[in-house]
Amino acid sequence: MNTHRISLKIENQVAWLTLDNPAGRNAVDDLFVEAFANAADACAADPAVKVIVLGARGELFSVGGDLAGFLANEHRIRAHVHRMATIFHLGIQRLHEAPAPVVAALNGTAAGGGFSIVCGADLVVARRSAKLVSAYTKSGLTPDGGLSWLLERAVGYRKAFEIMALNPVLSAEAAQQLGLVTEVVDDDKLDEAVQALVARLLQTPADALRNLKRLMRGAGAVPLSEQLRREADGIAAQAANPETMEALRRFFTKSR
Questions:
Q1: CATH code (residue 176)
Q2: SS3 35
Q3: What whole-number distance in Å separates Cα of residue 211 and Cα of residue 86?
Q4: pLDDT in tens, 186-202
Q5: How far is residue 92's CA from residue 86's CA, in Å, rounded to a whole number?
Q6: How many domains does the chain have?
Q7: pLDDT by residue (tens digit) across 86-116?
Q8: Are both 210 and 186 inside the same structural domain?
Q9: Whole-number Å distance between alpha carbons of 16 and 34
Q10: Which residues constitute the domain of residue 225?
Q11: Quick one: 52 and 162 in the same domain?
Q12: What is the mean pLDDT of the chain?
């Protein structure tokens, strides 16, 4: 039995977290959730990581939940699914709270939990042939992986409800129009486009990216007055960072 699910490589300030079970269509099964949570924790805990890239090997990003595993555990299905979801959610939350921005490289269809993973990214680069589909209610389930929270904040309540209730298959272009995908590229250009985006992010002072993500992730939970206070504290602290001052000098010199 293939027990490999996730690959993780950290080098040159970039964490490459790859769903690595193409033969199993990168399904979210018991081994997957354990490996995913551990890899996400390693990415979030490493202070040297400036960008996290989430990708997948094979023609599919992920088919989502391992329904065969659900059926095999029918005698204890409630406990089985609750355990899996809880561990899966550790990984989702770690990436959500990680200081480094998360870039999803969408190589193919992302369904169910795979859609949730993509939806949790800060930036998404997709192949033109890639697709997104919720698929949960089609099989009689409700979402996990944070999809009900993440999707509603990305596209609004009614569109999110439609996507999760009716399960339309969203093309990469349609997902981009909804704001779920940042950039759509020809299929053979995905790696090149992701590398280019990562290079641009690496040129930004690390604390600026970390503070931006923290500001954005917390914005919906506080009133405007509190967010304005956070912004004032954040920009003042960032301006005092030596790396920021160097960037400001370069920008000022170039703009003159």
A1: 3.90.226.10
A2: helix
A3: 28
A4: 999 999 999 999 999 99
A5: 10
A6: 2
A7: 999 999 999 999 999 999 999 999 999 999 9
A8: no
A9: 17
A10: 206-255
A11: yes
A12: 93
